[in-house]
Amino acid sequence: MVLPWRYLAKRVLFLAVTLVVATYLTILIANAGGLIDEILRAQIKYDITTNLARDPGWGQLPEADKTRIIAERLQSALAAKGLDTPFFQRTLIYLQDALTLQLGRALFISSAAGSKNIADIILERLPQTVLLFTTGTLLYSIIGLVVGLRMARRPGGIFDRTLSFIAVVTQTIPPWFFGLFFLLAFAYHMKLFPFGGMVSIPPPTEPIAYLLDVLYHMFLPLMAWLASFFGGWAYVTRNLTMQISEEDFVVAARAKGLPDGLITRRYILRPALPPIITTVALALIGSWTGAIITETVFNWPGLGQLFYNAITVLDAPVIIGLTVVYAYLLVATVFILDLTYGLMDPRIRTSGG
Amino acid sequence: MSAPVGLKYTLKTIFFSKSGLLGTAILIGMLLLSAAAITSVPYDVVKTWNNPEAWQDNPRHAAPEWVTLFTGGNPPRTMVIGPRDFFKVSFFVELASLKFIRLEGNFNYQYDDFPSEWAIILDTVFHDSRPLATIHLVRPDGERVLIFRSVLESNRTRLDVTNRAVRSNVLEWLRGLGVEEPKFVLPEVALFAARSPAMWDPRRATPLQGKYGIEVELVSTGRDDDANASAILFGKVHGLAGTDANRRDLFVGLVWGAPIALAFGLSAAVLISFIQAILGSLSAWYGGKVDEVVQRATDIYLILPFLPILITISIVYRIDIWTLIFVVVALSLLGGITKASRSITLQVMQEQYIEAAISYGASRLRILFLYILPRLLPYIVANIVLAVPSFIFLEAALSILGLGDPIVPTWGKIISDAQEGGAALHGYWWWVLLPSTLILLTASSFAFIGYALDRVVNPRLRER
Fold first, then answer.
1. Which of these, B178, B208, B210, lies nearest to B193 by C-alpha position?
2. Are residues A56 and A164 in the same domain?
């Protein structure tokens, strides 16, 4: 198979530009156009003056010396934090660092192991997010697929109508909202499940007990994730399957008197599979970014919660670092999508762009 | 994308399906609620939402009054014994130059639970020296309990159940009665409990019903000294929606939440859908460089991490809800609708009436706005309906993260207050369930209509 090189080159160029624009916008916004620098600078100056004022000898110094010492210390502290260059110039340095994934050091947040390195912090949180949301996405994809196929078997029947209705309503409700209800009902009222977190405190020492404990904590967020997404996905599958089942080759297969199960497997699922797999793959990669609000509601120690914490303490480098990782993931996903389309769609393959 | 359908067809789809009708009915209900809020509850009340003094006379954490329909019983409502309900006798003794003021207020307590709190407020006018105040509570069983005896510090004295002197007086009284040694003193329970060894314990005591009296005696030295008293017995139920930890009447917040949620959701959805559709249409109609620029910009917009940027903006600038709309719109100028309306326009452009319009010399803009965009209208309307719930939930989500509007009460903000106030932990269910039910109702009304409109947005379904 010949790859559509011109097309791919064009897409890579475009995606690179997109990445740069998205990252630079994030840098500008995360620094609030220099506002955060002002806050940090004022804070550093305040810290220096209060520290010096605590020194018993400080009161005896002449006024000129005081100003000079404050200015000196401020200068070195600003240089240490990298705040001494002009804002615009610094955004370009940030941009270069971000794009080369040199995420730098956090201002306030540190990893559980005590590291201030943003890459360490993110890598520490990533497994938790993947554990919860990738599992959830995989589960809802499978359930949605099965339910959707079942719905398409008898369109307009009771099962189809009920589930279509459920699907349309549940897909407007975000997972965190289900989460609130589930917490209220199953955690607070019935006391069946924990209020949040990933493990009990203190965590069990036995590996099997630990695993069970994590599963126990995962249950409610997982259910919230499923409740919000399985319906929409089932509906999409149903519509896709129904479109294909009206194609001539399916009608012909029916006319031949082939059994229903065989028609579904060989004649409907096979052409429906590529778009389904693409969508699932996209959702799986998307699930790595976690969910800011769902993680906050369930107190799940993943990337989403890290993002929220970073915003509340205005830790700009962490915000930028996470957004860059998000943007990279998205761009990579879009590129993979382009690649598969380029391979699959003969129009793109031959036109060369 | 097959040929677009007319607006009339769209409306017909809504009104001739069960879900469309149900959705419309709920939506009309919400609109009526909003109209009622705007006309009957003055906006001034909303402005005082964050002012604790405005809500002083309400009980804390009170359930809605209609819970009695399910639980039965007669839980206490808030009773106010105002200054006029107190019978006043005052005289001045020349010889000793002492002024005696005696205030007596009676009330009939018929509820089968204890008040959640009470407060006695003394307003005094004195000239030379500060008056000595003595307050007794006379119970239906004839007990006369000393609640307070002290020189008043200021012109306005508010005694409540947390007052240390009140607590120690009540403890002394309980000890004098010879009941069990109390583990803690709750003046709102003990004073209203039928006499029993366990009358200090809210779980074992039973309330004593009947006529109570509050007797206030003041002694001061000025001939013109005066005093007035009032008392509040805070109930355990309040209004239609109960109250929160700050004694706010949740009904006000919930009712005002409706127009705010609808205004926010609708204006964001309408603005975004129209802007995206117009830009998409423009892109197809003018083609060439315009098309290229709009399409590439759309691709960038589709990749921008929307929620992270939005959260960052709202935390850094502490924006209010109306600014939030503009930020949301600015972050969604281009998107999925741009792409879809571009492809619909490409189709419409092939039709003969457009060709006719070009041939008789209609201007390009005229054709775009008068001949092409109306054909997109059903699609835009369907998208608006489908998008409104997500914006209502977006506002609620930001509120739950603590980034909502700092002044205006919204449903999301009430839920977020409830989360912070530990509503779930303490079982204040109304505080969480009422606002979330309203959000759910509003969102699902749009979802129901959207379900009916699905055939407009997914034309493939229509063909069957």
1. B208
2. no
CB contact under 8 A, A296 and B429: no
B234 strand-pairing partners: B117
Residue A205 to chain B, least CA–CA distance (Å): 29
Task: Please report, to the nearest 10 degrees, the dihedral formed by the alpha carbons of residues A30, A34, A40, A42 taken in order.
Answer: -150
Q: How far is A215 from chain B (nearest CA, A)?
A: 23
A 7-26: CB under 8 A from B = 14, 17-19, 21-22, 25-26
> Do A174 and B316 lie within an 8 Å CB cutoff?
no
**Among A196, A200, A174, which Cα is nearest to A184's?**
A196
Query: A111 vs B32, which has greater pLDDT?
Result: B32
Region(s) of chain B under CATH 1.10.3720: 7-52+248-462
- Please answer whether residues B325 and B260 qualify as being in contact, where contact means their C-beta atoms are separated by less than 8 angstroms: no
By CB neighbour count within 10 A (0-12 exposed, 13-18 middle, 19+ buried), where does B284 fall? buried
Task: Quick: pLDDT tens for A169-226.
Answer: 888 899 999 998 898 889 888 888 888 888 888 888 888 898 899 999 999 999 999 9
* Sheet containing B144-151: order of strands: B86-93, B98-109, B210-220, B132-138, B144-151
Residue A239's closest chain B neighbor by CA? Answer: B461
Contacts of A308 in chain B (CB under 8 A): 311, 401
Q: Name the CATH topology of B76-234.
A: Jelly Rolls (2.60.120)
ipTM of the complex: 0.79
* pLDDT, tens digit (0-9, with 9 covering 90-100), for B96-116: 888 899 999 999 999 988 999
DSSP tag of B69: H
Contact B293/A at CB under 8 A: no
Q: Is A309 on the interface with B (CB under 8 A)?
A: no
Q: pTM of the prediction?
A: 0.82
User: For residue B215, how many C-alpha atoms fall within 13 Å in the half-sphere facing its CB?
Assistant: 9
